[in-house]
Specification:
CATH topology of one domain: Serine Threonine Protein Phosphatase 5, Tetratricopeptide repeat
Number of helices: 22
CATH architecture of one domain: Alpha Horseshoe
Shape: elongated
Largest sheet: 2 strands, antiparallel
Radius of gyration: 24 Å
CATH class of one domain: Mainly Alpha
Distance between the termini: 85 Å
CATH superfamily of one domain: Tetratricopeptide repeat domain
Length: about 425
């Protein structure tokens, strides 16, 4: 077969023939176009292309093609934050694959279902989906499927504060995607590893990961990942006390997410701007960006994010003396954390609620803070509670213990927040 004939034959295979009308549908060509549109951030156009693919698949009556088209359309809707629509399409695709006993298809969609459940705060169902995906990928010797599963499992362990387990999964994924030469997946994975290093206090390793993520994203022209990596670096700048540099990074992330129609990214960038502006005392801008973050969290029903946006804004109102508003926010956040069963967020919300109560002179608030101190498991929680009890009671014992803990944490992780607490406690102001 000549090269020209071979090329014509390959092009012919890209089209689907209706068995009765002899009409052809360029589904695979549109799919490839959609992949490019996703990379460069033209998500509305990608959605239109994939909608057309689904329409044609339905007209053809090809159940496997319908399932694949539902799955792919669900993917762009998930990126845009349309969780309910994405969940519906993923579930339809999952059910079609099950009817066909298509193990590879079941595994592929199970992971995506897990991502939506994770977004909605249902970590139990998310974990079940990810484990199903991993089990099938191992049965099928599917390296790409295993790599996706490892990534999803790493993220959910990171969200639950299980950083050792998270890093183990990310390392397994990185080994696989480097073997597959999947540059997009390599960039996402090193970015996630950077998040773990950041949480563990190793800012240098975190920044190296974010720099590598950014370099890959720029080389691929991946606008979403460029914004994410810039935003990740902004968190490091904020932790170091370089708030103006952090604000520039977060504003860049916000502008890119807004341009893409990435509502999830808009919420994350806005919440980080709320934190940064609060740090520099610009409370009007802080409130403005928290409002934007909360609005997008409600729009997406993204409980895992919304709970933290609400509690962060409650802390802002506490600083401003707007106690009733702060109490309403933290009450909603606590209810959401309890609904999700997220113990870390439950503890944080209870502590903020008790702090508000102590500042308002509520009788049992000191006892609640003392009880939380007995329950506290990590040094940060203990330091914060000793600090709260010192502020509420002027106890020199609590002041001394808070100072000891903050100094120890500052020595391990040079965060501006710890430095400020040490300075305050040393001077007694």
């Amino acid at each position: 077969m000549t090269e020209a004939a071979h090329g014509a034959y390959k092009r012919r295979l890209l089209w689907r023939e209706h068995p009765q009308t002899n009409r052809y549908y360029p589904n695979d060509l549109r799919r490839e176009k959609a992949q490019v549109l996703e990379l460069v951030g033209q998500w509305d156009e990608e959605e239109a292309v994939l909608n057309e693919n689904l329409r044609c698949a339905v007209e053809l009556g090809d159940q496997a093609l319908i399932a694949k088209s539902e799955y792919e359309l669900g993917g762009v809707l998930y990126l845009k934050g349309a969780n309910a629509q994405a969940l519906s399409l993923y579930q339809q695709a999952y059910d079609r694959y099950r009817e066909r006993s298509d193990a590879a298809g079941i595994g592929l969609v199970a992971g995506s279902l897990g991502c939506v459940y994770r977004e909605l705060g249902d970590f139990t169902r998310a974990m079940e989906c990810f484990q199903e995906q991993l089990r099938i990928a191992r049965q099928e010797s599917d390296s790409a499927g295993m790599s996706r599963s490892y990534g999803y499992l790493g993220i959910i362990h990171c969200l639950q504060g299980q950083f050792g387990e998270a890093m183990g999964y990310f390392r397994q994924k990185l080994e696989l995607v480097e073997g597959l030469a999947d540059q997009e997946a390599i960039g996402a994975t090193v970015g996630n590893m950077g998040n773990v290093y950041k949480m563990l206090g190793d800012e240098q390793k975190a920044l190296k990961c974010y720099d590598r993520q950014l370099e890959i994203a720029r080389r691929l022209g991946d606008r979403r990942s460029i914004g994410v990596s810039v935003g990740n670096s902004g968190v490091i700048h904020n932790d170091r006390g370089d708030c103006q540099k952090a604000i520039v990074s977060f504003r860049t992330f916000l502008e890119m997410a807004s341009g893409l129609g990435d509502r999830r990214g808009v919420g994350i960038a806005a919440a980080n701007l709320g934190i940064a502006y609060k740090r520099v005392g610009d409370f009007a801008n802080s409130e403005k960006y928290y409002d934007l973050a909360i609005a997008t969290g409600r729009e997406l029903n993204a409980k895992q994010y919304l709970c933290r946006y609400l509690s962060d804004k409650a802390d802002l109102f506490f600083r401003l003396g707007r106690m009733d508003e702060a109490e309403n926010l933290i009450r909603e956040a606590l209810g959401m954390a309890e609904q999700m069963g997220d113990q870390s967020d439950i503890f944080s919300c209870r502590a903020i609620s008790a702090r508000l109560g102590a500042a308002s002179g509520k009788e049992d608030s000191i006892q609640v803070l003392e009880q939380l101190l007995q329950e506290a498991e990590d040094e940060w929680q203990k330091a914060e509670l000793h600090y709260d009890l010192y502020r509420a009671t002027a106890s020199t014992a609590h002041r001394g213990e808070a100072l000891r803990l903050y100094r120890a944490m500052l020595e391990e992780k040079p965060r501006a927040e710890y430095r400020e607490r040490v300075s305050e406690l040393e001077t007694g102001e």
